[in-house]
Every structure is written in structure tokens, then in C-alpha cells.
Amino acid sequence: MDLYEAFMNISVAAVSSAVALLLPALGEGVSERAGVLNIGTEGYMIIGALAAYYGYLGLESIWIGFLMAGVAGLILSWVHAFFTITLKRNQIVSGTGLWLFGMGFTAYLFRLVGITAVVEKLKVLAIPGFQEIPYFGSVFFRQNVVGYASFLLVPIFAIALHRTPWGLVNKAAGDSPLAADMAGHNVSMIRYLSIGICGIMAGLGGGYLAIGSLNRFSEGLTAGRGFIAIAIVIFGGWDPKRILGGALFFSFIDSLQLYLQAQGSVIPYPLLIIMPYVLTLMVLAATSKRAKNIPHKLGVPYIRGEE
Amino acid sequence: MNKIFASALSFLIVMGMIAVVFSALIRLSGFELITVYRVLLAGSLGSFGTIGQTLIRMCPLLLASLGLIIAFRCGLWNVGAEGQLFLGAFGATLVGVYVSLPSPWHILLAMGLSFLFGGLWGWAAGFLKTRFNANEVITTLMSNFIAIWITYYFLQFHLKPVRAFNPVSKNILPTAELPILIKGTLVHAGIPIALLLAVAVWFLIHRTYLGYTINAVGANSAGAAYGGIRVDRTVLISMFLSGGFAGLAGMGEVLGVHHLLIRGVSPNYGFIAIAIVLIARVNAFGAIIVSFFFGAVLAGGRHLQAMVGVPTPLVDVLVGLFIISMLLQPLLEKRLAETSPWGKRMEYGSL
Amino acid sequence: MPVILRTEGIVKRFEKVTANDSIDFELKKGQIHALLGENGSGKSTFLNVLYGVWSPNEGRIFIHDEEAEIRSPLDAIVRYRIGKVSQHSDLVPTFSVGENITFRKVPTWHGFLIDRGAIRKKVLDLLDIVEVKLDPDSIVETLSTGEQQQVELLKVLAQDAEIILLDETSALLAPHEVESLFSLLRTLSNRGTSIVFVTHKLYEALRCDRITVLREGKVTLTADQQEVGFEDLLGAMFNQRSINDRSRSSMPTTEQEIILEVRGICTGNQVNPRRSDLKNVSLSVHSGEILGIAGIAGNGQGILLDVITGFCHPREGQVLLKSEDITRFSSTHILRKKNLIAYIPEDRHKMGSLCTLPLTENAILGEGRKGSFFPRSIRHRSKISEFTKNLISEYEVKTAGMNVRADSLSGGNLQKVILGRELSMHADLVIASQPSRGLDFKTTEFVHQKLMEKRNQGKAVLLVSYDLDEIIKLSDRIVVMYEGALIEVPYGETDAKAIGRIMVGFYENKTEARIE
Description:
The complex is a heterotrimer of chains A (307), B (351) and C (516).
Chain A: H1 3-33, H2 41-59, H3 62-86, H4 91-113, E1 124-126, H5 136-140, E2 142-144, H6 145-163, H7 165-175, H8 177-182, H9 187-213, H10 225-235, H11 240-262, H12 269-273, H13 275-285, H14 289-292
Antiparallel strand pairs in A: 1-2
Chain B: H1 3-28, H2 33-45, H3 48-73, H4 81-98, H5 105-132, H6 136-159, H7 190-207, H8 209-219, H9 221-226, H10 231-258, H11 269-279, H12 284-301, H13 304-308, H14 314-337
Helix pairs in contact in B: 1-14, 2-3, 2-12, 3-7, 3-8, 3-10, 3-11, 3-12, 4-5, 4-6, 4-10, 4-11, 5-6, 5-10, 7-8, 7-12, 8-10, 11-12, 11-14
Chain C: E1 3-14, E2 17-28, E3 32-36, H1 43-50, E4 58-63, E5 66-68, H2 73-79, E6 82-85, H3 97-101, E7 108-109, E8 113-114, H4 116-130, H5 145-158, E9 163-167, H6 175-190, E10 194-199, H7 202-205, E11 210-215, E12 218-224, H8 230-237, E13 258-266, E14 281-286, E15 289-294, H9 301-308, E16 316-321, E17 324-325, H10 331-336, E18 341-344, H11 359-363, H12 370-373, H13 381-394, H14 411-423, E19 429-433, H15 441-456, E20 460-464, H16 468-474, E21 477-482, E22 485-488, H17 496-503
Parallel strand pairs in C: 3-10, 3-11, 6-9, 9-10, 15-20, 15-21, 18-19, 19-20
Antiparallel strand pairs in C: 1-2, 1-4, 4-5, 7-8, 11-12, 13-14, 13-16, 16-17, 21-22
């Protein structure tokens, strides 16, 4: 297999697996922009994955499966919202608790129910004409429906965040909730909404893993993608376009690493696996503009009158 | 209602809530409550042997918790105990396999290196915070994965005997093994060491000047600075110690339980420790009791699947529930403290 | 011109303090009305009543001759078109000027996209009206304080305010920025906006159309600008009072050893000059004396203390503690010397104590005491509890016990703990900033007594207070801080009005009509 072919194969794998990173990262980006950190994103993803699997199996519709994925993620994320916004408790503790609960609960339920039937995953839809473009054609234009939808979500999120009043208020909630409050906006509602978006997106990401790109649920399916999503958000400066870039980049590294492993290569693959995390640390260590993009009040509960 | 009563009552209510949810989950899954509780009890406390199983799980939990106690008291949210544990295990393996010394020096050196590895890792997050103002939650979270994969890397590419298939290191030399204290069980010397260290940490926090500065920085870093305390230095020391103890947790697993390094050296001990520390009110003696409890849960739970068919991940669910309930307990305590024993809300100034 | 806002007998009480005592106030349309008074006179409270933050205990408010009930700030702006600009910023730092101004109701295109064109237009229209130059797209956190304040004003205007309340907004501005502010206000008033301008600076008040003076919650004077002069205003702000019940040090203290010496301190930079930047400040405190720094908040006192205690380093000048140059020392280094400097800070909670910890931990705070309470780094429990017990009894701290959390104590009792802690160190220099703020009469007396005891023991005391009576009562020598400069008060002067005139900017070596 020559180098180009290898590169192609890796790229194809990278782009399709980027979807499972892109979806939760977009959601987490919105939530963090409004000031809320979701350590539990991994939990939202896995519960979405299981819900998608069962939904598909039970009701024999892949779209019901995805719907259930979104709903499951939403519910769990709103538990987090309840703890952190309504009760104003610590976001880290809540996120960690929900993550462990999610992991445990899905594994528990899965083993209990015991069904491991394989489902028919989404078919790849090649776009005629585009798919002939060298390299980019086969890499980008041979995805399944959800894959295309996810990529389309990037400009939608970008427009929503940068060009709509909602985006503005969402940003204010993360940078200066006091100002937003004084201007008559409901900070709690904004944050609930943003967390909900995170939950839905992460849930859909998990669903994509289970029934979109693979063909069944398995324990540990998410493999830390929820945390990589957090890294991508930081790496991407809380901006949808850069988050897409980050998702593609990290996914490429992951696919590369898998390829090397499969080839029995001597290049140590774990060193590639840690790259996303190392890069994120470097971003945080920089005193440059990107780090300054951090929402001013990330992680801080808003209590009126406490300024 | 006075504070102590409110505190105890709120704890009881919270425990009760967890028990209710837990039991409901079991019942809804179609299992017999009594059976499950019996298996849990038998597996953890039923016999000498099983108490041993509890104790060997308590050991890493306690050690990791001690580290978190130091960090949390300094106001630092160290969620990287898991990664620090792995690096500690790695350090202990290096000494255990490749260095030749008579025991107990062999063990002591291994302990030292594992403390150092874990400690440096924790210190690094502290450095990023003091120098770059990087949020320690995110840095320790990310560094978890880095540490775990670095350990895997060494395991896979350097520590594994060349012909072996599984990523497992060579056995540590017998001189590095933590001796078994009670014949026929798995109870190793790491357990009393952990208990002694718990006393040491309690002493550190409550009886030394360093402990005072840690508490002060955690309570109000501006006030501490006003009092002449060097805040940055305290943060760095705390993170170093915190990582170090988590590293010792890894050491205990390598030298006391497995006698080699395997990938699965920790089933999320570093995260369970977070729950333990919160429940134990960031107190070392409380941590002893609570880590014993969680050790029992883990030990009792290992046979759940085999004997009753209850899937083992139920334990993770329980841990998650505990963490979540620790969010609610202080609120409940506050509410209770404001009521008279007969349940009426007291109006301030009415007395 | 018609009266647009009128109040009758506004009374506002907080616990035991009457902040506003029967205030009658009248604002005409298009008028710039100054509200003048020193700290604690009730100006801010009155504004908050007008803005709906507080509802008055007694009295009525009339807007356009109709009785008004202003229930909240939202009410104020939406129903009554009253807007307020305060010292802390309500702006979103990462937003642009335009985004901040239109934030309450963002103009949209087809209902769901932001209409940036409309934002620009609105901002440019407003900028035209007020004749101010600002780039609508510039990000607020990059602007200077003066420019940010302009944005706040524009924001209030954008919400169609008829009445604008300005709460000591000029305090943070550089001299040329004050000019711009006044010019903007004048443009607005010419267009029919009515303005209430709170200040403590006489010359600023004299630039307004009408002046109302508040003293201790009451209106002492209200007149048009051309009807009054400095003396009238001074007399209204500070009654002629001498405080005679003081025990003065018998020794001519200037012959004693100089404990603290400050020479030629200058702070601030050319890029962003502030009026509170220190300008060549020099002072010295001798052992056995209390040096009182009088002045209204915001004139640089905080900065001076920060320089002395090492929290900030001056551009020029020196700080000498018992002849040792400590100018470049960090605060940690200086405050470790607990046996040299005792510091009772202005902010009890954020700085002076560790609120969530027990009293014992608070009582021993101070790295310089490590040796006595933690011999060989081990806690000496009996010594600590004995010390705390003694402190509690000697300073009459009302507490349930020495192991209760510090934040369960009342403000006064917490201050006593801090006082006891700091004064127990036998430090040669005691710095006390606002030591009796918020305390009741008895506790205040207690605090004063303790400070005088220290003085009598031969220690040096540097007292900073916004309460002129406290300064006069306790100080052996008095200096006034005004806009970053230190002005000496003639020795033996105890007349509040005489000192007050310096505090508001009217003193020798300055021209009568004081315009920056």
C-alpha cells in the first residue's frame, strides 16, 4: 500500500469519525460560552448511545433511535443544569457525578437487558459529482446522512452564535451575567438552554457512534470522546469553525494512530493519542489571545447581588 | 436545630435517599433486594478472606483520598488523581523490576519514586495555575489521559517482555513485594502504611504550620496573602503532595496486589476518591471510614454479576449517586438548621 | 422650565441608620443638578431610591407631577425613563460598543438575525447627538475608563432615558476625560435630558445648574449655581464643629523617632492617567503619634496604602520603614513582618479575615507569628486557644465560642477580632483603614480607645478614614488626600469645615475657580 493510499484511507476514516467528536464539541462550546462547564458530557454521550440503540431496536426506526439519543442526553444534561443553575452547586462535582452515573447506568442496563443484536447502520450516501473530486471527494463526500448534517451544523451554529440576538445573550451570560441580568435577560434560562443544547448534541454524538458509524452499542463505546470534546472546545477557542478544525485534526491523529497500530508500526501510538490533551494544555498555558477567549465567568454560578 | 444535629440528620436523609434509589433500581431490574444485600455483605465482610478483599481496595482509595484532601483544603480541584496514580504505579514498577536492593529498602525506594512521579505530575498542574492562571480542573482532567497513555506506552513498548502478547510488565522482584500480613489473605503491608499515612495527613493539616497555610489559602487566598503567606508556594506544595499520595495509591497496587503493572491497575479509584473526600468532609479520619465503606462496596460488588446476575457496573452507579448526593447534603443541612425541631421555619429575629 | 422630578420628604432607614432624612428635591427639565456631600451623607442612597433599588420608608416621588412608585431598576427605565450610570460597570467587556448599547433590545433583521446595520446606525446617530467620537465596533474592554463611561451614558440614552442619574462617575476619570464628560452632559441637557450629578468635589458641583447639598442624610442647602459660592457650599457640607474631647499626646511628637517615611511617591502612567494617581506624596509617622489621613473615598488613599504595604510599586519614590527601604518589597514580604507593621484593612471580609475558618485560625493569622504559635512548625494548641480566649475577652468579642466560623460574627465583632489580632503583635507601626466603618457607637469608642492606647505606648499609628470626625478626634496631626496629592493641615486645627474645604479641593496654592 503506497503512501497516498494510506493517507487516503486514514483521511476517510478521520472525517467520518470526526462526527462523533464534532457533535459533542459544538454543544459543549455553546454551553461553555454561556459559562457552564460540562464534565459530564461523556455521560450524556453514552446515555445517548444506549438510548439510540434501544430506540432503533425497539421501534425499528433509525430516526426514532436518534430522537431518543437526543432526548436522553437532554434529560441528563438538565439534571446537571438543575444542580448547577437552580441549586447553584459546584459544576465540577456535578459533572463528575453524572459522568460516573451515566457510565455505570448504561453499562448496567446494557448487561441487564442483554441484547447485543447488530443493527443496520446508516448507509453511506455518496454525493454524485462531488465524490469524484480527487482526495476531497472521497474523503468528505461519502458520508452518511447524519455526517452531512453535522457538517452543516457548523455554519448554523456559527451564525447562531455570532449573528443572532440569542448568540449575543449567550455570550453575555458567560462573560458578564450581571450585565445580562441588568439588561433584562434571564440568565438562568439562557444557561438551561445552552446546557440542553450540549446534552442533545452529545446525545446525538453518542447515538451516531452506536447506530451511525458502528452497528451496535458496546460498553465504553465513547472512549473518552466527551473529554476530547472539552479539549477541542478549548483548542478551538469556543468558535464553531475552529472547533470543526479541531475535531478533524484530532480525529485524523486518532485514525493515524489506529492505522499505525494495525500496521504493527514501531512508532509509539500512545504518544499520538495524547496529542489532543497536550495541545490543550499548551493552549491553556499560552497567555495569548486564544486563551483570552475563555468565557470570563466559566464555572462560576451566577448569584444576583453577589458582585 | 443545632448544627451538629442538622448535619447528622441531613447525612442520614441523604443516605436514605441513596438507599431508596438503589433499592428501587434493583427491584425494577427484577432482583431480590435481600439477595443483593446479602451478596454485597458476604463479599465484603462475610469472612476473613473477603474482609481482606475489602481492605485491599480500601488501601488505594484511602491513599488517593489523602491526596485529594490536601488539594481540596487548599481550594484546588484536583480531578487528576487517576493519572497521578498511574504514574505512581509506573514509578513503583520501574524500581520493583529493574532495581535490585534488599527489602525493605527496595520497597522504600519504590515508594519514594512513585510519590515523586505522582507528585511531579500534580506539581505541573500547580505550576500551570500559578504561572499561567490555567484552570486546574481542566489541566488535571487533561493530564489524566496523558499520564494514563504515557504509562500504557511504556507498558506496551518497553516494560512488556518482548514475546508476550498482553501489555503486562515483568514481575517485580520479591524484595519489592509488600509482605502479606495475614496468611491466607491478600492483606498486604500497604494497608497499615495507608492508615499510618492517614494519621500523618491528619497531623499535617491540623497540627502543622503548613496545614494552617493550606487551610488559609483554601479559605481565602487574598486573606492568606494579606497575612504574609506565600500563596503560590503553598499551591505548588499542595499539588505536589496531592499527586504524591495518589502516586502511592498506584504503588500499593503494583507492590501489594498485582506484583506487576497491568493496564487495568485502577478501576477509577482516582474518581471514586473524589466522592470519598466529599462525604468525609475533607477529613483524614473520615476518609478512613468512608474508603473502607467504598472498599466494601467494590469488594462485595465483584461477585454480584456471577452470583446474582446483577451487572457489576451498578457499583459505578452507586458512586455517581453518592457524588451527586454530596451536592445536595449541604443545602439540606442548611435548611434543617433553620428549622425548629418541630419543623417550622424560624424567622430571623423572632426570638 | 417645568419640574420633571420632585420628591417630598423621602426617608430611607437601614437598621439603625437613617440614610435619607426627609429629603425634598426638585429637578427641572434640561437641568444638570448636582448632589453634593461627603462620604455617608446619603447621596448614593437617594439615587438608589430614585432608581428603584430601594423603596423609601416615607415620602413620595412625583414624575411629571404624577405620583410614581418605582419598584425596580427595570421599572425605573421602562416606566419612568430614569437611567443610572454607576461606578461599577454594567457593560459586557467582550462586546463591542454597539452591542452593549443595544443589548436590551437588539435590532433584528427578519426577526432572527442581528441587524448590524441598524446597530451601527443607532450608535452613530447617538454619537452625533452627543458629539462624541467612538468606534461602534471597538470592543469595550479595550477602551479607557472615560470612554467606557461614555458608552454607559449612550446605553442609557438608547433606552430613551429622560432623566439620567450619575453616581460619582467622575471619580475614576482622568482630568481631560472630566472635560469630555461635562461637555457631553451639557449637550444632553440642551436637548432636554435632565441630569442628577452626584459628586463630592466642589468645583464639579459649581459647573452644574443647581446644587443640593446633603449632610448626614438631610438637605442643608439647595440653590442655583450663580447664587452660591465656595463658602456657602462648604458651610452646608461641614458644620462648624470642633471636636474637643480628645486626649492629645503630650510630647511634641515630631521629635520622636520616625517609624514610617514616605518620600515622593508617584504612581500611574501617562497612557491612562487617573486623578487618583499619587503625585509626589510624602509623609512621615513618628512613634507616639497618630497621623490621620482625611479625604473622600477615591482620592488615592487606597493606592497609598497599597504602596506602603507592598501591593503595588510606585513609579517613583521611596517607602522607608524604620530607615529600611521597603519600596520594592512584595506585600507578602512586608506583611510577614508582623512585628513591624500591623495592618487593619478596609475590607474585613475579602482581605482581613479567613471567613470560613474558625476564630482561632483568624486570630493567629500572620506569618510573622509563626514562631510563637507554631514552634518548630507544630501547632501549639494551648497557646493558641489561650491567646484566642484572651483576645475575645480583652476585646469584648461577642461570640458563641472560639471555634465558630469567623463569618458567623457580626461586622463589629469581626473587626474587634482583627483589631485584637493586629494590635497584639506589638508592632511599631499600626495602619488602620476605615477601622470603625459600619460599627455601632460603643464598638467605635472601643476601637478608638485601643488605637489611642497604642499611641500612648509609643507606637506609630497611620489612620485613614472617610469619617472626618474620627480623624479629628484621634489624630495628632492631620493631612488631607485630594486627587492624589497630600495636603497638610495646620497643626492643631480641629474645625471640620476648615479641613473639609481641603477635602473638596479648595485650599491655598490653588486658584479659586478650579478647572482642570
